[in-house]
Every structure is written in C-alpha cells, then in structure tokens.
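Could you help me review a protein record that somebody else here produced? Do not assume that whoever made the record got everything right. The record follows directly below this note.
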Amino acid sequence: MALKGTVHKYGANVDTDVIIPARHLSLSEPKDLAKHCMEDIDAEFVKKVKPGDIIVAGANFGCGSSREHAPLAIKAAEISCVIASSFARIFYRNALNIGLPILECEEAVKNTDNGDVLEVELSTGEIKNLTKSKKFTAKPYPPFMLELISSGGLIEYTKNKLQRA
C-alpha cells in the first residue's frame, strides 16, 4: 500500500486538545470534525491540507486525553498517514482501530521539513523523502494490519472477515 503526500510538520507532544479542540467534541460527523482539525496548533491547516498529505511530528504525538475524535478528525481531513518519533499508546490504538496508518521513524522526522513530499510504502516500512532524495525505514505492517487499514478500520475489517466465514 503506497501513499504519497506533502508534509505538514509539527513538534513534539502534539496533544489531542490541539488535534481536535474540546469545544468541538459535540460534533459527531467526521467531515465536521475535519473542519477543525489541528486548528489550535495551525489555524490554516484545513485550508492547506490536500487529500493524501502526511503529518510528520516529534515524540509523543496524540498525548493527552484518550478521545477517539483526534485520529478521526485527521483521517476525515484526508491525511494519508502520520509519521512521528513516537505516539501516545491510546492514540496509536485509536488510529489503527479506524484505519489511519501511523508509523514511528525518528530518522524520517529529523530529516523531513514542512512542505517536503514523502512516499510511504506501508508493507515494507520504506519512507522516501522525494524532496531530499533520502530513504528511511519504519517497522512495516504485517499483512493482517494492512488488510485492517485498507478495510477502513477494525469494524469494517471484522465485518469483512465475518462475511467470508
């Protein structure tokens, strides 16, 4: 599964309150959440982001509360994946549950700037910075996780499995 997009880069400790501010938690439709994605850390994010773009950030991305709205807002904003030095564990699990690919790769974070174009191959973990002609490797996803992500998350993956049984 190959992804390609322009980087929107942030620092360390990007918490769920800036990914989707608490004042918008009464919204339940993903597209409504996407309209407010990252607004407290980057007011222009929703105007700049294009389908397939990639968020790159420092350590502890998604820290703070365990709100499921955070990865949902990112996915609904049509971000193809998030690459960070590390993720808060609950964010990590919530992202995978909804089929949002996330990769941990310190070297990619260190060697990527805002506006760079990345190409990511989830099955191998290869991250290519096309702007800087550099390659990095994150831990690749096993086949069942690739299927879960391509299905759109745990619920759809489970439905597909039950239908085939």
Observations:
- The radius of gyration is 15 Å.
- Helices lie at 16-19, 30-34, 45-48, 69-76, 89-97, 106-110, 143-151, 154-164.
- The beta strands are 2-9, 54-57, 81-84, 102-104, 117-121, 126-129, 134-137.
- Residues 125 and 140 are 4 Å apart (CA to CA).
